[in-house]
Write a structure and sequence with these properties.
Length: 740
């Protein structure tokens, strides 16, 4: 099929190029019609079901749409009249803004509110700004509102969910722009070194640009039908740019190699597509398989990111086999125009052939120290801690993060809240018997070790008895005390009542987990069911529980695809094991850097447990990308083995012909990933650096040393398959005939 495609592209090169241009035009149009990106997840957990009930039955007007402003001064205390006047003057523009629903300050005449909005250090006050629009809308115009609040006497910091969401948007956009610029500055010289001609250098850049545009368009369209994370644009650009340039590199290099060997343009193109094009297609399949493992995390943003990643890889393969191939057919020998005055590679056996032969002379002596090094790198992985990322993933100097840290100085902060939703499906929850049962439930909750307090309609007045609550809450709402009326309105629906357990334990600490387990083990009141909302714990557990299934799927399907490529049952197993080794080493490095914080001052982040999405994203991406080089290397080795029948010569010759290319491709891909490793947002930074480490290890220690050593030890067993599987492979193979 690849021979046919090579002939087709050559004969209809201008038509193929026109179709590629049409796809680009469609992508550009789609960019302007994409949906809104947002982070969501955990909808199919107990916390998600609790949230759904609350959203359906409790007042939601303006819910989630607010931000806080922290005012501070070292020179003035909060009791200074000048502090009060400066704060009120700064807030005045917001009070007259039609988008603002209300502004709560310590000066509104409510003692409890004044205490809650005054810091314990006596130098900071807080105002809470409620907005009329929902979170997604308010996040877009937050910068305009924030710009209205200024003061020459006070420091002002915006924080809260809208402010934090805006800062994530701002830093992610800046990270993307920086990564694209840095990538370009590093990739261009590397491509010039690999190809030594300007025209050849431009081709992979063009394919990379087209793939990124197509990937971003796919993300936007995907966001119109499902929730797609705000991180998706960065991840898709990272993957799309890396694989598209790599795939182009493989095809252009083989095309030039065939031209240099005296082939006609048509024959060179057919051979390039038959060999490197086929490897690219299989590589794209393996990368897509790795990314598709994220579909096991349905109900989280990872599922949509897996789909988006697989789409951008498919787009990269498509453009490599159409746009790039058509351009090569058109350019022909002109692909070598504008040659740089660099030393030309000498014909004959070179560095990689010699390296492979030296490794294969003493394979055990090579394997033992290399595996020891990778094992040492992987060792911190056994201390990994997983917890949901929060505002701490922003850089330390981000305004919303500074404001968040200041808010911790206010009374009642630094606490964790777990909502307990009691559902009575057959009627209203505030009957006499049910109020009594709710009172009893709160008393049981208070007895749980670590619970500081319980907030709810049956805990508003500590002096009131069980019978007192029954009497007050069964009266018409209009006759209840004002405080009861407000609380009943916000915490009671037609069938539900919410109680809140308060603890000083961190949200995902062992203590918090023990409290949640205790809450969920309590028997619900008679005639009801009970749900406990512990979003961070549930989401982390949701991800961790599905990781083994996703890992098994990736390894199994990758094994099957590599069997189709090679016809061997041994080589795919070797490839899977090699991938696990390189991934383990990169995971260990991530734990050492980001969790243990060894490079935190240099890289400007706060050490913290890894976000649960990081191991998933890293495994799925690295497993796929590692197969990129595996497919290229094994394809070339197998090609030589079929020609010579000698495994040692095949490995040496295959490494000689592809080693330099793999190193160049890995350097380019590592440069792309390293550019994303310079990000300010910790999640993007950790994924970028993790991928850089994984690719560097994979292309050096694994491909250059471990692969030839293992293949030397296996000998002819590399190509072994049971007879029935060998016959099956010959019947269904996608293998192309080898040219004489």
């Amino acid at each position: 099929m690849f021979v046919f495609w090579g002939r087709f592209v050559y004969r209809f090169r201008w038509a193929v190029l026109a179709v590629s241009a049409g796809l680009l035009a469609g992508s550009i149009v789609a960019l302007g019609h994409g949906g809104t990106l947002k982070n969501s997840g955990g909808s199919n957990t107990e916390s998600g079901r609790a949230l759904t009930l609350m959203q359906k039955q409790l007042p939601q007007s303006g819910a989630g749409s607010s931000f806080s402003l922290v005012f501070g001064s070292d020179a003035m205390s909060v009791t200074d009249p000048a502090f009060k006047q400066a704060m009120l003057n700064a807030l005045q523009p917001l009070r007259s803004d039609s988008r603002v629903k209300g502004v709560e300050t310590p000066f509104d005449g409510q003692p409890d509110l004044a205490q809650a909005l005054t810091s314990t250090d006596g130098h900071h006050l807080m105002a809470v700004v409620s907005l009329r629009d929902d979170y997604a809308t308010a996040r877009q115009y937050y910068p305009q509102l924030r710009a209205e609040v200024t003061s020459v006497h006070l420091r002002i910091y915006g924080t809260g969910n809208v402010a934090i969401g805006h800062d994530f948007d701002k830093y992610l956009a800046a990270d993307l722009q920086r990564a694209e610029l840095v990538s370009l500055l590093i990739i261009v010289p590397l491509l010039l070194l690999v190809f030594a001609t300007v025209i050849s250098m431009l081709l992979p850049l063009g394919v990379g640009g087209l793939a990124v545009v197509g990937g971003l368009a796919a993300v936007g369209l995907l966001a119109r039908v499902t929730d797609v994370s705000t991180y998706a644009t960065n991840i898709v650009t990272l993957i799309g740019l890396g694989v598209a340039i790599d795939y182009s590199l493989f095809i252009v290099n083989r095309f030039r190699e065939e031209l240099a060997g005296g082939q006609t343009v048509e024959s060179a193109l057919i051979t390039a597509i038959r060999t490197s094009g086929r490897a690219v297609a299989f590589s794209g399949i393996t990368v897509a398989i790795g990314l598709s493992a994220m579909l096991f995390f349905q109900g989280s943003f990872l599922a949509s990111m897996g789909t988006a990643g697989a789409l951008v890889v498919a787009i990269a393969v498509l453009y490599a086999l159409t746009f790039l191939s058509a351009l090569l057919a058109i350019l022909g020998h002109r692909v070598n125009w504008l040659r740089l005055p660099l030393p030309r590679r000498r014909a004959g056996r070179g560095l990689w052939h010699g390296l492979a032969m030296r490794v294969m002379r003493r394979p055990i002596l090579v394997l033992v120290p290399v595996l020891a090094i990778l094992g040492l790198l992987a060792s911190p992985f056994f201390q990994i801690q997983i917890a949901n990322g929060d505002v701490g993933m922003l850089p330390p100097k981000a305004e919303s993060r500074v404001g968040y840290d200041l808010v911790q100085k206010f009374p009642g902060q630094g606490q964790t809240y777990f909502s307990v939703v009691v559902n009575y499906p057959d009627g209203h929850p505030l009957t006499r018997d049910r109020v009594g049962n709710l009172y009893d439930l709160t008393q049981r909750i208070k007895q749980i070790p670590g619970v500081e307090a319980v907030e709810g309609v049956v805990t508003l007045d500590s002096s009131m008895s069980r019978a007192g609550y029954q009497a007050v809450l069964t009266e018409p709402v209009s006759t209840q005390p004002a405080r009861f009326q407000e609380f009943v309105h916000t915490t009671t629906g037609p069938n539900i009542v919410t109680l809140t357990a308060v603890t000083k334990e961190a949200a995902e600490s062992d203590g918090a987990r023990a409290i949640v387990r205790a809450l969920r083990s309590l028997p619900p009141p008679t005639g009801s069911s009970m749900l406990v909302a512990a979003f961070s714990i549930d989401f982390t557990d949701f991800i961790v529980q599905r990781i083994p299934l996703a890992v098994a799927y990736v390894m199994l399907v990758t094994y099957l695809v590599l069997f189709l490529l090679t016809g061997s049952v041994v080589l795919p197993l070797k490839a899977v094991i090699m991938n696990i080794i390189s991934i383990g080493a990169s995971f260990g490095a991530l734990v050492w850097i980001f969790q243990q914080g060894h490079l935190s001052s240099l890289l400007n982040f706060t050490p913290a447990p890894l976000d649960p999405s990081v191991p998933v994203l890293l495994f799925c991406i690295v497993f796929g990308l590692s197969m990129d080089y595996e497919v290229l290397l094994i394809s070339r080795i197998q090609e030589e083995y079929r020609r010579t029948g000698d495994t040692r010569l095949a490995v040496a010759e295959g490494l000689e012909r592809s080693g330099r290319l793999i190193t160049g491709a890995a350097a380019i891909m590592a440069a792309v990933f390293l550019a994303f490793g310079l990000a300010d947002v910790v999640l993007i930074k950790s994924i970028g650096l993790g991928l850089t480490i994984a690719v560097a290890l994979d292309a050096t220690l694994v491909r250059a040393l471990i692969v030839p050593a293992v293949m030397r030890l296996l000998g002819r067993a590399n190509w072994w398959a049971p007879r029935r599987l060998a016959r099956l492979h010959r019947r269904i193979t996608l293998e192309e005939p080898v040219a004489a």
